[in-house]
Each structure stands twice: as structure tokens, then as C-alpha cells.
Design brief:
Largest sheet: 6 strands, parallel
Radius of gyration: 25 Å
Shape: globular
Helix content: 40-55%
Structural class: alpha/beta
């Protein structure tokens, strides 16, 4: 069983079906031809999240017969992905959905009709990209290139119309669309970063303004990009975990007789494969601001809303229903010696901490976006996402850059309590998490053994604050913590001014009270709540 067999038409559909593989239900040849001639969607970023989510959504729409065109993918960073993970398989992939109950779903995704390398050094591919951008049928150009992909370097601005960075290349292609008649288009980020559309817009404007100033393009191009009847840069919120190819999954596929079950590692250290393993839960909420129509992705589960609703969904996720739970688990998981989030969910104290913190302390001030129920979102996090044994996520990874995350993940909830005049005395577990941060910074786990805290731009500075403290029995002076918990840059507000500083100090004293103190303190407060 190989993907190339499906491409060549030399496969036995019944054999695949008998082993639980869902095959495309649409005419792949007809869709490829239609997409080539009249493309509507071009996506930059050929990584795993694209294949597991946006491409799979389109696959679902195609399978219903409600649409007749696929998506063309372009890769502007790691060109080996195209050569090794796309073209040998006719641009198809196998999506393996990993469920929290230990079962899996297997689906051949054939919605990607063409794969291209987004760089002028690949002449034929670049010419094709220029052709696509000049097609009146093109409706959307989207991205999953990570937040770093939207960066703009001064040196790249000086390269003129032959930039090296992906956003410069995209702007050069937008210039081709302008030259073809200032055709309308929506430029859509699908990356997991707040207000992502603004990041695309800022980058495109930076290149266009530099080129106009240098006399390389006329002012009309800049006016075109800024004309929202022509070009739009909507916001979106995306949420789905797509880890590296998993050995357990490879073994399962091999037992089925599926031969394309190996991992591909590129020179740029991208881990990919002919298959993608991903969690079952997924959300994609997009600002519905399109100038030339769009593919009907709502038929595959995408939610199209206004900008304010996108922002509210983002706030619901990062301030209440997911990200604060992750940070709480990362702090206490590291202190208690865990290396897997799914294993932490078997720990009654940690599971109780995040469940009660979420439902009892954060939910009273949650931002309700209307299109997704916060209670259902957090329930999926607690019952499907975090316990999933297939998700090899680690508290040590999540603990990276914690100082940069705390203002949003916890500071906003505390501010909401203040703004609504709510009783700060109701907050017990959120202060416990923040107290745990001081113990985490000490770099000593609950057995008394040293561990290396995860990378953080403020790590050395914050560790110096807790340096006078020791993990030992008996009373000690905790007053050094005032220099930590009064920092508005770390917590979003002065926790003493908020009336929580003394409470957090007291909890920290308990957490520092010798080996076993973390477990005892955690159990005490979680049980009481």
C-alpha cells in the first residue's frame, strides 16, 4: 500500500477500505486540471500543520462535491520538503488523527494539486507562481510559516525586487498581480500568533514602501496594497497540534502494510513524512473580509466571523481555556519530574489544579466569543487534548519563555477581577501557580535535585531574585520575592497592588519548605478548592 499507487491508479480500493483508510471521493484528475487552469487558493508553508488542517479541511469539502478546486502549496524556506515529502507522492499525504481514547483515523489527503518552491532560483516554479498571481480567479493567498516568517530585515529591503525573505518574495508576487490589472486578493495568515493579519500587512507594506521610495515601483502599487476593496489582510485564530512523525504511528501503519511510513529529516532539520499525525481537536476562526470570493471552507468546519469575534476567540484561548492550563502544568510538571503532558493528566493534583483553576477561577471572567462555547472548549482541552497519549508534548517545552507568557495567561484574568470589582479572595490556584514560578526559577525539583529551567530571555535576571532562597525546612526570609511579584513586565501588573502579593509569598514559603513541599502544598490547596 503506497500513495504512489493511488496516484498511478494501480491500487485496490477495497484493500485500503478494509484496513480503515478513507480514500478521496472526488475526481482527482478533474480537480487538478481545474485548479491548474483557474486556481483560487495558493498557500505558503508546506509543513505538517498545513497538510493536517487547512488541506484536510478542503479535502472534506471536495469529498462532499460542493467544490471543484484544490489548493496549490508553495514552500519558501525548506525546499527539500517539496522534493522529498510532496512530489514523490503526487502531492498526496496520509492524515493520521490520534484520538485521546487511543484509536486512530486514517485519511488520504489529495486536495493539494501542485507543489512549488518559492524562490527565483527555481525558474520554472517561480514562473508558475508569477502566473498564478496574475490569474483573475485567484481568491486567497494564505500562510503557515510561523511568526518568524513575517520578519523583515533592513538588508533584505535593500535587495530591491529580488528579496531573499518569504514576505519579500510574496510582495514581489503581489506586484505582478498589480501589474496584471490591480486584481483583488485576500492575503490570509493562518499562523498561531495574535492579530496575525497585521503581521502580514506590516511586512508587505514595509517592502512596498522601500521599493516605492527607491523608485523601483510606482506609488500606485502601495495604494493598491492599502486599498481594502482590493487587498485585505484578515485576522485568524488557529489551534491544532501536529507533532513530529511518531514512532507508534509508524509501527501501526507498517502493520497495515502501508509502506510510506518513514520519517524524512531535511538538512534544515525539518521532521516530516509522507504521513502527518495530529490530534483530533481543531479550530480555525477567520475574519470574513474577502475581496474576490473565497473557497467554501465553512463546509469543512472553518468559522467565518467578524474581526472582534476572532479577537475574542483568541482571548478565550490564551487567557482562560488553554494557555494558562499549559503554563500551570509546565511549572508543576517540571518541579514534579514529569516529561509528558499526557502523564501529568494522570496526576490527581495536577489535573485537579488546572481543572479547578479553569472552571472556578478563570471562567467567571472569560471572554465569550459567541461562536465557540468556552465551557465546551475547555472541556475538550481537559478530556481530549491534554490526556491524549499520542501527543508527545513536554512541560519543559511549554515552559520556554514563561516570563513572556504570564502577563496574558494570568495577568489578564486578575485585571478582569479588578475591573469587575470581584473578590480577590476567590483566587487561590492562580496565586499558587504564580508562587510555583518562584520555586521553578530556583531550578530545584521536589526531590531536591537540580534541573535546568527552560530558555527564557529573563531567566538569569529572575533567578538572581530568588537566589537568596533555599529549599529547606524551617522559616526563611521571603522578602526578596517582592522584587519578583511587583514586576509589571512579568505579570502584567504589580501583584502587591492587586492585593495578591502577600498571599503568593506565603504560598512560595510553603513550596520552598524542603523536599516534598511542592507535592504537599499543591495537594493542600487543590483539595481545599
Amino acid at each position: 500500500m503506497k500513495l504512489s499507487d493511488i496516484q498511478n491508479g494501480t491500487y485496490n480500493p477495497q484493500e485500503w477500505a478494509d484496513k480503515g483508510y478513507q480514500l478521496p471521493k472526488f475526481d482527482m484528475k478533474a480537480v487538478r486540471q481545474k485548479t491548474h487552469d483557474e486556481p483560487t487558493w495558493l498557500h505558503f508553508g508546506a509543513g505538517n500543520i498545513f497538510r493536517a488542517f487547512p488541506a484536510a479541511v478542503l479535502q472534506n469539502v471536495l469529498d462532499t462535491g460542493a467544490y471543484d478546486r484544490g489548493v496549490i502549496v508553495a514552500e519558501g524556506f525548506d525546499f527539500e520538503i517539496i522534493d522529498k515529502a510532496y512530489r514523490p507522492y503526487g502531492d498526496m499525504s496520509l492524515l493520521v488523527v490520534l484520538k485521546s481514547d487511543g484509536s486512530i483515523e486514517k485519511k488520504v489527503v489529495a486536495s493539494v494539486t501542485e507543489s512549488l518552491k518559492a524562490d527565483p532560483q527555481f525558474g520554472e516554479d517561480w514562473a508558475r507562481l508569477e502566473e498564478i498571481f496574475q490569474k483573475p480567479s485567484l481568491q486567497m493567498v494564505s500562510f503557515t510559516i510561523t511568526e518568524k516568517g513575517y520578519s523583515v530585515a533592513p538588508a533584505d529591503l535593500e535587495r530591491g525586487l529580488t528579496p531573499a525573505l518569504i514576505m519579500g518574495k510574496v510582495t514581489a508576487l503581489l506586484y505582478r498581480r498589480y501589474q496584471a490589472g490591480a486584481l483583488p486578493l485576500t492575503v490570509q495568515s493562518m499562523d498561531n500568533c495574535s492579530h496575525n493579519g497585521d503581521k502580514v500587512k506590516a511586512a508587505a507594506f514595509a517592502y512596498a514602501e522601500a521599493w516605492a521610495k527607491a523608485g523601483l515601483v510606482d506609488q500606485g502599487f502601495l495604494d493598491y496594497l492599502k486599498d481594502e476593496s482590493k487587498i485585505t489582510f484578515p485576522w485568524s485564530m488557529i489551534d491544532k497540534i501536529t507533532p513530529r512523525p511518531d514512532a507508534q504511528v509508524q509501527d501501526m501503519l507498517a502493520k497495515d502494510g502501508f509502506e510510506d511510513n518513514y520519517t524524512i529529516v531535511t538538512e534544515k532539520r525539518t521532521y516530516t513524512a509522507p504521513f502527518v499525525n495530529a490530534e483530533e481537536t481543531e479550530y480555525l476562526v477567520i475574519e470574513d473580509k474577502y475581496t474576490n470570493g473565497r473557497p467554501p471552507l465553512e463546509k469543512g468546519g472553518v468559522l467565518y466571523v467578524d474581526r472582534e469575534t476572532v479577537d475574542n476567540v483568541e482571548r478565550m484561548k490564551v487567557c482562560t481555556c488553554l494557555n494558562p492550563l499549559h503554563t500551570a502544568m509546565s511549572i508543576y510538571g517540571c518541579l514534579l519530574g514529569y516529561t509528558l503532558i499526557s502523564d501529568e493528566m494522570k496526576d490527581g493534583d495536577i489535573c485537579g489544579l488546572i481543572t479547578k483553576m479553569g472552571y472556578q477561577e478563570a471562567m467567571p471572567v472569560v471572554v465569550d466569543p459567541g461562536v465557540l462555547r468556552p465551557s465546551e472548549f475547555i472541556n475538550a482541552v481537559l478530556t481530549k487534548r491534554l490526556p491524549n497519549p499520542f501527543m508527545p508534548d513536554a512541560p519543559q517545552r511549554i515552559a520556554t519563555d514563561t516570563s513572556q507568557k504570564l502577563p496574558i495567561r494570568f495577568g489578564e484574568t486578575i485585571k478582569a477581577y479588578q475591573a469587575r470589582g470581584l473578590d480577590m479572595g476567590e483566587l487561590i490556584l492562580i496565586p499558587l501557580v504564580l508562587a510555583g514560578y518562584a520555586r521553578y526559577l530556583k531550578g530545584v525539583d521536589d526531590t531536591g535535585a537540580a534541573f535546568e529551567p527552560s530558555p527564557d530571555p529573563l531567566l538569569a535576571e529572575l533567578q538572581a531574585i530568588v537566589a537568596p532562597l533555599e529549599v529547606k525546612e524551617g522559616a526563611q526570609d521571603m522578602s526578596c520575592l517582592k522584587a519578583l511579584y511587583s514586576r509589571k513586565d512579568v505579570f502584567g501588573l504589580d501583584l502587591y497592588e492587586a492585593g495578591l502579593g502577600g498571599q503568593i509569598e506565603g504560598m512560595a514559603a510553603e513550596l520552598f519548605a524542603g523536599p516534598g513541599a511542592v507535592r504537599n502544598t499543591l495537594h493542600k490547596y487543590v483539595s481545599a478548592r
